[in-house]
Amino acid sequence: MMRFPLHALAVPAVALSLMAGCASEEAPELATFENCDELDTWLTASARKEIDYVSPPGLYFDEVGGLGGAERATVATNDSAGGVPPAEPQGANSYSSTNVQVDGVDEADFVKNDGRHIYMLDNGGLNILEARPVKELGHLSRTLLEGQPGSLYFDGEDRVVVFSQIWNGQSLSPESGGGGLTVSDQEWDPITKLTFLDVTDRAAPVLTRELYVQGTLRTSRRVGNTVHVVLTDYLQDRYQVWSDNEFADWRAVQRNALSKLGARDWIPDFSDHRLSGDSWHVSTGNLTRCTDVYRPVNRTDLQFTSVLSLDLDDDTSLDSIGLLARADTVYSTADTLYFAMAEWDNGPFRSFDGSVDSRVHKFNLGEDGPVYTASGLIPGTLLNQFSMGEHDGFLRVATTDWNADTVSSGVYVMGQEGTRLDPVGAVTDIAPGETIFSARFEGERGYVVTFERIDPLFTFDLSDPRDPRIMGELEVTGFSNYLHPLGDDHLLAVGEEVSVDGFSWEGLQISLFDISDFSDPLLADREVVPGMGWSEAQYNHHAFTFYEPYGVLSIPVQRWDGSDEWPDSALALFDVDVEAPDPLVPLAEIDHGAWLYEFGGFEVWEDAQWCNQVRRTIFMDDVVFVVSDFGIQATTLSDPGSEYTGWISPNSQCNWGFWGAPMAM
Question: Which pTM does this prediction carry?
């Protein structure tokens, strides 16, 4: 039954002009500071306002300490699961890569490959493995890394950059010696480290640069050889202090600490260690100039968002800007970078009008780093990075609007005029009472899934930015968390199956939607994984791999049987053939826990289960590499589950799979 004509409304131009102001008459444009004194005055006033507004939360620390790390070294090995790799192995004819939102815009992950080598992070190091020939899977080297490594990029040739988090209470230990950077030891005031390695010789990577930046890694993107990095730093840590007397005047203590800060205390610091020849060169200071810090005209958050741009071919490159606003959601194309942040109806920095809006800031990406271009405001909040998509210069945004006593969703098309990014077209009041569970924009089309008790999939025609329209709606049970376009006529999706009444969750489901008739989408096929299952692919698209050369979908599956034991973990493989009578066919479930128990030599089954969560899949021709935090299991598509070979990491640390997975932004 088609429901959208009754409640989904195309918003006329007059209403859009009013909507551009949303709940506030404030101008959305950003401005820079004329000098450091202006920055200090602005932030001090904002901090005083927050001190007066916020109730004393407890006790805070004022001691300053270093952040730091671990010993680093490169260990070359020739150990392997099945022998020493040949001198000149050949790469695969076809191989998978990290699943990303935008073609040509890479996203960091803890494992990468180039069709011949696998680059994988463990608990403290970068491992490089020779994956061809697969029966002689060989571990070439492990480079110890400072801090807790979490994600990496490989430029496709000979450069790797690794992102690590160094937490409070540690001291920096760069290869060049000396620290050069200290921050407060507040719990949420870490250092982000970028480690640059030349991996021309995979058996002996060479450290070329160590860049420390104050703040927490939010996200990053790689376009060609340029890496754009987004970090956040909570400015409250600059003045929130410990009081010996917990009954002391908390606000007076905060104000006293605030009075001792200057402009340069607000801006995050960096320490850059670069190898040139046989010598290390170190530079330190504020990451960003005061005049390169952007602030909203009429409000601010006490959060400093830093955006760094670095050229992997140039170890001296470092362009950066600052933004005094949160980065709740980040979306990037090859040429633009968007930040979206929710503005709630509480707090001292906006009017109390009962609304929740989202402010969007747009930056162009050029040779000299991000350049601010425009801002806008729309109703509602975004789910994740897939809630945004750009096409022909227009930004499409899907939001759930929580205003007043109603909940509904909308799709807004935002166009730039000067420094304003305002809605030029919109469809609102989509599925009242339901929230968005997934969204995707692709070319002139858009897709939104909402859910309350059933799962409506809406298809949108966005070919005319000023007249977006819902074209079709399909109601099915359950919901989809992630949508993956498969050509022009189909969508793959992963989510949860729910009973018709909406009250009984029945397990993980994989769906194939036929959208060849865009006004009448159909459920072509659906597979429900037996048992109480879930997948990291529902909330992290990097765990979703569709290997087009073989038409195979792989997702990790965690399954709990209701006992007190650890969940079982497997890699589920599906054959996807949109022309077949049964287009979605289960191929196999590869039991990773059983492999760990047998191949890894664990004494008891529970030891194998403890770190058995499958996280990723790598395909090289017919070979399937099943990747967990504990190691890599290799098998084949022609005989999935066969014990081909594998590698066990001696330095693994469980990330708890689904539960510990970073959310998409």
Answer: 0.89
